[in-house]
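Design job #97: recover the sequence.
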């Protein structure tokens, strides 16, 4: 059955059955992954969206039945769920022996492109390297991207695959999650069809393998991947891997594999900084044609700094709550996110955080404040930082001086006294600024 055709017809019915916000935020972004006479699988963008859509399954089933005349079981999965991958794999295997490699390329998420990737300080180098690879550059091979969950590694990998398919269609792109690679190899051992497995992976021009850490403690699969890696590398084919840690930390991986993973370009992707998180949220608003106030955007960006998936989930939660409440205030956003911001996530105010928030408030950089620049637009924010370190953190003058690059305690004392004097006038710009900064620090 044609899953895309079924879903296109079903969307036209669903659009009139749910609210506009539910349709645009949760229903429309889903992708049809698989369909046969019994089962229809849709993939949600993320776990949060999946949770919101599952209660709508009866409605979706009815709409599918109305458009197709068939009673299908509907599953809402994530793109890399075992059920989704297994059904796609079985379907492609049944169609033709050569379909498996094409299926690997088709698993690329078309939404993950370089255009939709927000570049920031923490991922700029990784982005540049991946763009170079997608344009045919081979100076970096293999590329090993590592970092925590939800930082954009998979997005970049899919972006490479999508760019190659578009710009160099003659090249064979094979994308696979390492967990699936392991499961496929186990199936190969059981069936004895090694030639099919090796033809699929060793004939690739671009092998994109996600979450390579799943190779740990899989001895036979490590041997197979070692030979696959060698054959591709020696043939000048491109290998791109992602992992949650650097190669040297894969302690239960064979040394010869760690050595090969380390032989190319190793790139650490860091969590997005505040400015990048704001840019991501602005892009989400642009894509969804939704406008949130600056204080709501700041609240989301300030409280969800660990990874982009959490940031996206928070954004969707706020949008859905505010639309349902028909109110778009900061208090509404706080209510919407109260269960997502746990006590463990509460911000710990540190000198570093004070400097970051003050720099943001004055539209300057952290480096400006920590430098020896003497212009007024830098001195005042620096003095405010010193004052807040003293008044809010109870740091001693010598400790504050050490933090700001070894400044004398008399300099710190002068700064604190000057700001304290300015605060006597509650209508002064400094008073208003500091009150706003305190809210960002402690709320």
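Job complete. Output follows.
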């Amino acid at each position: 059955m044609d899953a895309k055709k079924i879903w296109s017809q079903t969307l036209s019915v669903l659009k009139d059955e749910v609210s506009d916000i539910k349709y645009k935020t949760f229903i429309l972004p889903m992708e049809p992954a698989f369909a046969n006479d019994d089962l229809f699988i849709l993939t949600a963008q993320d776990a949060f969206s999946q949770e919101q859509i599952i209660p709508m399954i009866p409605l979706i089933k009815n709409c599918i039945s109305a458009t197709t005349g068939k009673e299908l079981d509907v599953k809402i999965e994530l793109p890399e769920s075992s059920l989704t991958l297994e059904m796609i794999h079985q379907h492609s295997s049944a169609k033709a022996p050569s379909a498996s490699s094409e299926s690997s390329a088709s698993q690329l998420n078309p939404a993950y492109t370089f255009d939709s990737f927000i570049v920031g300080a923490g991922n700029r180098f990784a982005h540049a390297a991946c763009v170079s690879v997608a344009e045919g550059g081979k100076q970096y091979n293999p590329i090993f991207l590592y970092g925590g969950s939800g930082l954009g590694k998979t997005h970049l990998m899919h972006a490479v695959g999508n760019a190659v398919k578009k710009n160099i269609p003659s090249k064979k792109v094979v994308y696979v999650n390492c967990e699936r690679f392991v499961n496929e190899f186990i199936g190969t051992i059981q069936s004895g069809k090694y030639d099919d497995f090796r033809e699929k992976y060793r004939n690739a021009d671009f092998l994109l393998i996600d979450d390579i850490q799943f190779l740990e403690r899989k001895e036979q699969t490590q041997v197979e991947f070692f030979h696959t890696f060698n054959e591709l590398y020696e043939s000048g084919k491109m290998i791109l891997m992602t992992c949650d840690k650097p190669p040297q930390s894969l302690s239960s991986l064979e040394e010869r594999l760690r050595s090969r993973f380390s032989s190319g370009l190793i790139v650490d992707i860091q969590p997005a900084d505040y400015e990048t998180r704001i840019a991501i949220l602005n892009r989400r608003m642009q894509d969804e044609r939704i406008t949130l106030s600056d204080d709501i955007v700041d609240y989301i960006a300030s409280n969800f700094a660990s990874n982009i998936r959490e940031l996206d989930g928070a954004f969707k939660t706020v949008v859905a709550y505010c639309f349902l409440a028909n109110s778009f205030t900061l208090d509404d956003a706080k209510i919407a996110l109260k269960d997502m911001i746990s006590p463990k996530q509460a911000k710990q105010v540190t000198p570093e955080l004070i400097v970051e928030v003050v720099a943001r408030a004055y539209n300057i950089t952290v480096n400006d404040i920590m430098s020896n620049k003497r212009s007024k637009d830098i001195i005042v924010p620096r003095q405010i930082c010193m004052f807040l370190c003293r008044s809010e953190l109870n740091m001693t003058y010598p400790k504050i001086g050490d933090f700001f690059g070894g400044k004398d305690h008399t300099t710190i004392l002068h700064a604190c006294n000057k700001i304290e004097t300015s605060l006597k006038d509650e209508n002064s710009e400094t008073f208003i600024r500091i009150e706003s900064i305190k809210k960002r620090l402690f709320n």
